[in-house]
Specification:
6-stranded mixed sheet, Molybdopterin molybdenumtransferase, binds molybdate ion, 423 residues, alpha/beta, 4 domains, Molybdenum Cofactor Biosythetic Enzyme, Chain A, molybdenum cofactor biosynthesis, binds ligand LQZAQKY5, Molybdopterin biosynthesis moea protein, domain 2
Length: 423
């Protein structure tokens, strides 16, 4: 099915789809999928995505507290106080941590209070210890006048009861877990982690624990791609290295589609075995192939398909190309399957850096240029790492990458580029 409206040439080959368009075609299809949810404890909730809004059931803090060590006072008793004309206050009580203060503050008196202590009734502010001089056990001089509310966090100042603390579709960060803990919430309803099935193909591929042998190369892709998938919160099932004999390959991809939420195989996406990858996706269910071939380098021969609600990707065999395709297409799809709101996706951190050598690019393709970063006189500099898309060490050496757009023919030494950082 030519659902991506990709035209074919006289030999039946499809044209390349621009990267942004390919991503839109994919993500539009994933927009309305239903995601299963589960209820889990805060301790397990880091990086999970909320499936419903969370509303504060109580004020935080639930009562006014001091933000300084000092004396709880009625601010009006300190008005106009200075070093030369201090206010004298009677110490009539002490606030102890963890217990509500006893009694209530009278005009002209104060309570000792620690940072975090609950304000006694009638007190409206706290004088820092540093702005007082002890007279004796029962009296203190206040040498600086303060306004009402000084050094106090009021009831609900942090968050008020009834206010939405977190929206649905939000990936929970450490700070969010802290907010929920502060509100006394332990159980959260989150989307289930997407399950990803990974398949490697190619007669030359052997397990990385095998000794080297003539004509064989070790399976790099399943390891790097599984790690990338785990980084975006998925659970991974490795279906191993599968023969590209059609019935064996088809049966394995079919099982992965049955058992997981997103499947990718690497290798076999280019001309050599292209038909096998294409045929497999088409046989597995509708709508089948969405895109085959994008204006991306490396990563051009990617196949993007959808088989009865399950995205299936044929990633290029070259390890760098497979990783780049993961960044551009698989990760956004995993995020969509995680239930994360599109606008809420964590942007890849990036920095501006000075390009240290000119790079040419063919118009019509989006080039992903790996770089090493260093600093010179407080400025970031980036050094392109040249190497083939089969060389995994180029990725391992890279701190990040920058892009040369489809409409550009290259960038000159000295230009500023935006470098996206590899984690
Ligand atoms: N005539 C053409 N040849 C190729 C084209 C083209 O347009 N015309 N495209 C090239 C590009 S670009 C890429 S990328 C590759 C994509 O190849 P495939 O996706 O079909 O993958 P293979 O041919 O099976 O493998 C390519 C390369 O990667 C190695 N490989 C495969 N799987 C793994 C793995 N799991 N771990 C490590 N390395 C792996 C494989 O041994 C090959 O060396 O095609 C170009 N050719
Ligand atoms: O696009 Mo291939 O993916 O350059 O190496």
């Amino acid at each position: 099915m030519d659902s991506a409206n990709q035209s074919r040439d006289m030999l039946g080959r499809r044209g390349l789809t621009r990267v942004a368009e390919a991503r839109t075609i994919l993500l539009d299809r994933l927009d309305n999928l239903q995601h299963p949810t589960e209820r889990i404890s805060l301790g397990d909730a880091l990086d999970r995505v909320t499936a419903e809004p969370i509303v504060a059931a109580e004020d935080l803090p639930p009562a006014p507290r001091s933000t300084m060590d000092g004396f709880a006072v009625i601010a009006a008793d300190t008005f106009g106080a200075t070093q030369s004309l201090p206010a004298y206050l009677q110490i009539t009580g002490e606030v102890l941590m963890g217990t509500p203060p006893e009694g209530c503050l009278e005009r002209g008196s104060c309570y000792r209070i620690p940072t975090g202590g609950l304000l006694p009734d009638n007190a409206d502010s706290v004088v820092m210890l540093e702005h007082t001089v002890p007279v004796d056990e029962t009296m203190v001089e206040v040498v600086k006048g303060i306004g009402s509310g000084t050094n106090v966090i009021k009831t609900g100042d942090d968050i008020r009861a009834g206010v939405q603390a977190l929206s649905a579709g939000h990936r929970l960060r450490p700070s969010d877990l802290g907010l929920l803990a502060g509100l006394g919430i332990d159980k959260v309803v989150v989307y289930r982690r997407p399950r990803i099935g990974i398949i490697a193909t190619g007669d030359e591929i052997i397990d990385h624990r095998q000794p080297s042998a003539a004509g064989k190369i070790r399976n790099i892709n399943s390891v790097t791609l599984a790690a990338l998938a785990k980084r975006c919160g998925a659970t991974v099932t490795d279906y191993g290295i599968v023969s590209d004999r059609e019935e064996i390959f088809f049966a394995t991809v079919a099982r992965a589609v049955e058992e997981t939420d997103l499947v990718f195989f690497s290798g076999g996406s280019s001309v050599g075995v292209r038909d096998l990858g294409e045929r497999t996706i088409e046989r597995l269910g509708s709508p089948g192939i969405l895109v085959h071939g994008v204006t991306l380098k490396p990563g051009k021969p990617i196949i993007i398909g959808l088989c009865n609600q399950t995205p299936v990707f044929g990633l290029p065999g070259h390890p760098v190309s497979a990783m780049v395709c993961f960044d551009f297409f698989v990760r956004p799809a995993v995020r969509a399957l995680s239930g994360e709101r599109a606008g809420d996706c964590h942007p890849v951190p990036s920095i501006s850096a000075r390009l240290m050598r000119s790079i040419n690019s063919a118009a019509g393709r989006l080039d992903v240029i790996r770089v090493r970063l260093d600093r010179d006189q407080g400025q970031w500099r980036c050094h392109p790492i040249l190497g083939r898309s089969g060389a995994i060490s180029t990725m391992s050496r890279a701190d990040g990458y920058f892009l040369i757009n489809e409409d550009s023919q290259g960038l000159a030494e000295g230009e500023q580029v935006e470098v996206y950082i590899y984690q």
